[in-house]
Amino acid sequence: MNCTYFSPRMKNILSVTIGVLLTVSVFAQQKYTISGYVREKGSMENLPGVAVVNTKTKAGTITNNYGFYSLTIPADSVDFFVTYVGYQPYNAKFRLTKDTVINVDLAVFQMNTVTVTAEQTEKISDGTQMSQISIPVEQIKTIPALLGEKDVLKVVQLMPGVHSGSEGSSGFYVRGGGTDQNLIILDDATVYNAYHLFGFFSIFNGDALKSVELTKGGFPARYGGRLSSVLEMQMKEGNKQEFHGEAGIGLISSRLTLEGPIIKGKSSFLVSGRRTYIDALIYPFLPPENKFGYFFHDFNAKLNYEINPKNRIYLSGYFGRDKFYAKFNADGDYSDKASMGWGNATSTLRWNHQWNDKLFSNTSFIFTNYLLDIGYEMKDGTDFFELKYSSGIRDFAVKYDFDFMPNPDHYIKFGVISTYHRFSPSAIVVNSSNAQENESKQKILEAYESGVYVEDDWSITERLKVNLGFRLSHFNTQKKNYLRPEPRAAVRFKLDRESALKASFSMMNQYLHLLSNTGIGLPTDLWVPATANVKPQQSWQVALGYARDIPKYKLMLSTEVYYKHSQDVLGYKDGASFLLVSDVDLNADEIQWEQNVTNGQAWSYGAEFLVQRKFGKFTGWVGYTLSWTELQFDSINFGKKFYARYDRRNDISVVGMYKINDHITVSATWVFGTGSAITLPQAEYQIGEHDPAAGQSNISVNTFPWFVNDYGEKNSFRMAPYHRFDAGIQFHRQMKHWDRTFEVSVYNLYNRKNPFFYYIATDYPSGNRKLKQVSLFPLIPSVSWTVKF
Amino acid sequence: MDRKILIMKKLALLLIIVPAIFVSCEQDADIELPKTEPELVISCFVMPQDSFIRVKVTLSAPVFGNGSNVQSSEVTNATVTLFGNNTSIVLPYNANEEYYKINTAQFQIQAGNEYRLEVTDTEGRQAIATTQVPLLPPIGFSCTVEDSVEYSDPNYEYGRSVYRYSVQDFSGGLNYYRFCGYTRMWNSSLGDSLRLNRYAEIFSDNSADGEILTGSGESWYQANLPNDSIMGYEVWMLNCNYDYYNFHNSLYNNNQGGDPFSEPTLMYTNVEGGLGIFAAANAVKLILPR
Lengths: 789, 290
Description:
Strand content of chain B: over 45%
Strand content of chain A: over 45%
Radius of gyration of chain B: 23 Å
Strand order of the largest sheet of chain B: 7-8-3-2-17-16-13-14
Oligomer: heterodimer
Shape of chain B: globular
């Protein structure tokens, strides 16, 4: 009998069909990785933070700091989209059948080309990262500035949650934290004193920078070492194809930037320098017996080399110096001169290594040096007196970071950093004609600071994304070890296509302290480590936010509330000051500054609002911050809570830039801030000490009363509010071989006399006492000229 | 050492002036000023060892006002009441001494008790302060004085006295002490001995709890011979309360205001509705021969 259900022919067809189906189904679940680098077309600069998305499935990722991305998705047809603010999007449709390398060169976005599409705009509601602002470097060049000096840190201060200390100074306070609680990184190197000219300008030359990013809360685990913020700046690498440059002349300083290829397509360089010349200009006008002057210069350099597509090295460095000097020559033999100088030097050697299409690593070797020196010399006939003071900090660090992208749902980062710190708090040499040379050195302190971290940006569902991280930090100094865990967590929940709720928690530790009397950012500030007696600072912060994109008007809205509690913050004891020069015969074990400081707590809380427009003819933002910052030290203000000097109840920034046409751009800024909290004498009275013997004697008391002041509570007086309006207009012209920009700007257009400090003066002849104020910058116009070639 | 500080101050001033050179403007401050009304200032210290209680009442002079200076600001007609020991007493004004004064036969200050001082003046101001007397006098107080004559002639003598003292700290808790040393001088016109040239120092047991605390200090004495003569020394060790310590500490720190970079030192006050101090101590006294 013959069974003929499946004829041999049918069997063949069946087996082939099953075979094909099986293969297809296996094929369909097979995943492949698309990876590569995203660069700027032309210059070949790596672009960080670029969105790479398969719009078919919405699976996506972003490029890392070096432009590398990796996307592991199922084999299928792919609609590959690469988008980044300010650049034209890249789109490719293809079928993914194997691991593919796609390097993308994005062209800079020109105003008169394609219209902006929905996918193209960067969505604030997408990322888990909250409390983070990236400051567009090109905008820094457009915003009007004091004396025409474009300044990165000044623009940072225009963001909500960030404000400056006093007039014109670059020191900044983030969410109620002090100026030393900001981690300022330039190409992986920590910068200790970021200011020129006694705090009025920062050391960062915008021409050399590629990206500037400020994180105020919800700190990812890869950052550590400071309590309040991370300001990360990356230098440009240098155009790999063509030679370009930029030069500028301003009222205060001039600058020149040159970049270009060393080996076309593989290696390039960038150098940028700045110098002031106001001292050279006024020198001839000063009287011969009394000369004084001030100058600063800074220099940025970067080299990079692509050894092969998987290995690149970068070498970058910064060197800057400020010097102030004054000379006095009387008739006859007397002459004296004083000088004060300070400077930073940083240097980083980095090696990018791509292990495979999912794992990328970077190794950095970092050097940082900061030095302050003060000198005074006096000659009077045969008598002479000489004083030299210096203080500084030197770091050597190694950093090893990994980016691992196993699939679009997880972006894992992990790594380790270790830093050797060398502090020389103060060294004084005194030499005079009538005494021996005397040298007094405060003990040099060494410390090791390390951290190991792991973090994962995990897309749990399409709506819910979390960034969970853990950092373990360690500090070793004088045989004392501190080991502290730092959990970090951030959550983003998408409510709809355009809006999201965000929340974050972070715990931070800070092992280095800045002792600063004035809070202005003067170079007299002293960096010291946590020691056996002075504990590290610690804080925890929670933040809650809501972000919304309004694509119709190209607007981004974000609002956040935060609460931060810090412990073991340092302050100078009442009456103590850095100028209490150490005794020449100081015991070698004693650390003088430890006696002058005390520790306490800080609470900061507030709400921030930001409305921002990043594209179009009209761009800019409005930011408003409402905040409180309170401190409590057992040894200050008799242990009672008081407002920090820099407590700023209301802070408003309005920034606008309007491109009238290709040739003219106008810009304006308006800022408002509640005044600083200071301690002002309110009344005078007489009071004397206790005379114990008088209690037993019928003869009158033998005590001499002293005149003392009543100041009220510490920092109970508010200075007048600060507000100011700046405006500028830029004229661009494209010539054959270069572009030139001529700018006229005005600082403080309505000439408000914002008080810099107050003092008490007596009016004659009435004898009445009055409060007088000194203001710093009235209406100041300036011009500058920039050429790009 | 002083020279170094002076030079640093010079540099400090340069640091402030240079930025100010940058176009600075001076004008009257455009802001509402803080309090401009005078306030009552009380000063009173009590000890169980006292025979007399004295209270000084003056008025403060607001810094911003009409030619105000801190002179002749005595308040002579206030009502000064001391509460404690389950009773109260009003202190009358003594015009000779310019103090409100009573004899402790009328009102005894007792160790461990709390007292409240209320001062009301004729213009409706009222100031109140309370303080608690430390329970125990210091223990283990000993002191030596070293005398050295610097200059001597039949009419005049002056010299140095160096005190060296020690006291046993109470263990547990924060304790505050004050040492006072006087020269005892016979004044023939008064027919009595005076305590003069007071040397005083205030300290706490901050990092040496329960240990023997030591200190030293020096003072100068002078005598117009032959009528006056130095009889010896009288040294006191006070166990002070928190108010007493904070007040004296802030008073002594107040003197160092020359540095433009240092924060102003606040004066401690425990007076509500006014300024000044009402504090207490418990003391032991030693009489030392010359």
